[in-house]
Design a protein that fits this description.
The protein is mostly helical. The chain is built from six helices and no strands. The site of heme C has 27 residues, from helix 3 and helix 4.
Length: about 130
């Protein structure tokens, strides 16, 4: 009896013990970037392509790159500072989170998102 009663508890313990967010792998995140983002985003400071450069994106306000004239009203009105949480929410479903955005590339896999955000966070400094 004790075995059958404790089995659900053990399962619960396993769930609780599992890390909520796996540690980001920045190298894997770079590979995700090269697969899904590089067509429209540069990583270099100030380098504008189809989208705004993502250098320094972590820690800056949404739609705040000087010189990128094509921000949508939707993104301009999305009043967040990009961090691990806001990027995760946005990248999971950009057009769902910010209806009207021109950023159309979702990253549906949570692990890929975490790695990607970990990689973006390394792109800091002038
Ligand atoms: C088809 C082109 C395209 C692709 C592919 C693309 N983006 Fe974008 N991205 C844009 C455009 C255009 C904007 C500006 C959107 C707006 O103003 O509504 C943008 C905006 C963003 C922003 C907000 C930047 C800011 O300055 O506020 C982030 C973050 C972002 N993209 C991340 C990504 C990531 C990460 C990927 C790869 C998973 C990606 N994008 C793929 C075109 C693209």
């Amino acid at each position: 009896m004790s075995v059958t009663r404790s089995a659900p508890l053990l399962a619960l313990a396993a769930i609780v013990a599992a890390p909520a967010a796996p540690a980001a792998d920045a190298a894997a995140g770079k590979a995700v970037f090269d697969k899904l983002c590089v067509a429209c985003h540069s990583l270099e400071q100030g380098s504008i392509t189809v989208g705004p450069p993502l250098h320094g994106v972590v820690g800056r306000k949404a739609a705040s790159v000087d010189g990128f004239a094509m921000y949508s009203q939707a993104l301009k009105g999305y009043n967040v500072t990009w961090n691990a949480k806001t990027l995760d929410e946005f990248l999971e479903n950009p057009m769902g989170k910010v209806p009207g955005t021109m950023m159309v590339m979702p990253v549906t896999d949570a692990k890929e998102r975490a790695d990607l955000i970990g990689f973006l966070a390394t792109l800091k400094g002038k």
